[in-house]
From TrEMBL:
Its EC number is 1.1.1.267. It catalyses: 2-C-methyl-D-erythritol 4-phosphate + NADP(+) = 1-deoxy-D-xylulose 5-phosphate + NADPH + H(+). Belongs to the DXR family. It comes from marine metagenome. InterPro entries: DXP_reductoisomerase (IPR003821), DXP_reductoisomerase_C (IPR013644), DXP_reductoisomerase_N (IPR013512), NAD(P)-bd_dom_sf (IPR036291). GO terms for molecular function: 1-deoxy-D-xylulose-5-phosphate reductoisomerase activity; manganese ion binding; NADPH binding. This is 1-deoxy-D-xylulose-5-phosphate reductoisomerase. Keywords: Isoprene biosynthesis, Manganese, Metal-binding, NADP, Oxidoreductase. Residues 106-188 form the 1-deoxy-D-xylulose 5-phosphate reductoisomerase C-terminal domain. Coiled coil: none annotated. GO terms for biological process: isopentenyl diphosphate biosynthetic process, methylerythritol 4-phosphate pathway involved in terpenoid biosynthetic process. Its cofactor is Mg(2+); Mn(2+).
Length: 252
């Protein structure tokens, strides 16, 4: 909660929702002192937003993110979703809601944002293969014997990304990549047989598309989520973001 508190101050936020009742009661006074209104459930958003806003990003982890995402679609011109559980379990509901409210949707996970960018305005029939990359996690190339002594703290040390504990564990055993393939199939409605996974330890290339005319396109960027987030917000505008210099060695 204190991280949210500091972010609210830094970004001059006027309204905050804290679902946990105990933490809401414990920290509410701190927000109020800074003239920040505190609500206790997502339904209160109706009191905050009176007309459609330009962009909402939904990144609540787990299936608990589905309900607030459905609500966000009602009052957003564009919704960015970084929550694979909601998409996997509730895509049909989300899709209907998006269509009904004429709300644009952009996937935020780096692989799905890359696919979205590469096949936007492309005839899906021309797609021969879609490859999602996976780093292989912290135990890639480790001897089988050495895995007997690993501990949870070792499994959450992802070599490239800074992530939460659950997704780090899922990345270690490749379950996260399986979920991402399911998510991609839901979003893009492309035959699951066309999806493949490629181990790419550098995590610099996020998706590769092979077309039936022989062309291959891929999207690469630094291992930082600020890039897909930034581009999902400004995808119709020419905006600049600070990023590392292009390092061609990572392609080798």
């Amino acid at each position: 909660v204190m991280k949210i508190y500091q972010q609210a101050i830094d970004l001059k936020v006027k309204n905050v929702i804290i679902i946990n009742k105990k933490k809401n009661l414990k920290y509410k006074h701190k927000f109020i002192k800074k003239k920040i209104k505190v609500f206790h459930d997502h339904s209160k958003i109706k009191k905050i937003i009176k007309k459609k806003i330009d962009y909402t990003m939904c990144s609540i982890s787990g299936l608990s993110g589905l309900k607030p995402t459905l609500g966000a679609i009602n009052y957003s011109k564009t919704v960015g979703i970084a929550n694979k559980e909601s998409i996997i379990c509730g895509w049909n509901i989300l899709k209907k809601k998006l269509k009904k409210n004429k709300t644009n949707f952009i996937p935020i996970d780096s692989e799905h944002f890359s696919i979205w960018s590469l096949i936007n305005n492309v005839n899906k029939a021309s797609i021969e293969e879609i490859i999602l990359t996976a780093s292989g996690g912290p135990f890639l190339n480790k001897a089988t014997k050495s895995l007997r002594n690993i501990k949870p703290k070792d499994a959450i040390k992802h070599p490239n990304w800074s992530m939460g504990k659950k997704i780090s564990i899922d990345s270690t055993n490749l379950m996260n990549k399986v979920l991402e393939v399911i998510e991609a199939q839901r979003i893009f409605n492309i035959d699951k047989k066309k999806f493949k996974i490629l181990i790419h330890p550098k995590s610099y290339i996020h998706a590769i598309i092979k077309f039936n005319n022989g062309l291959v396109k891929f999207l690469a960027h630094d291992t930082h989520m600020k890039i897909p987030i930034f581009n999902s917000i400004y995808f119709k505008k020419n905006k600049k973001i600070q990023s590392k210099q292009l390092n061609l060695k990572v392609f080798n």
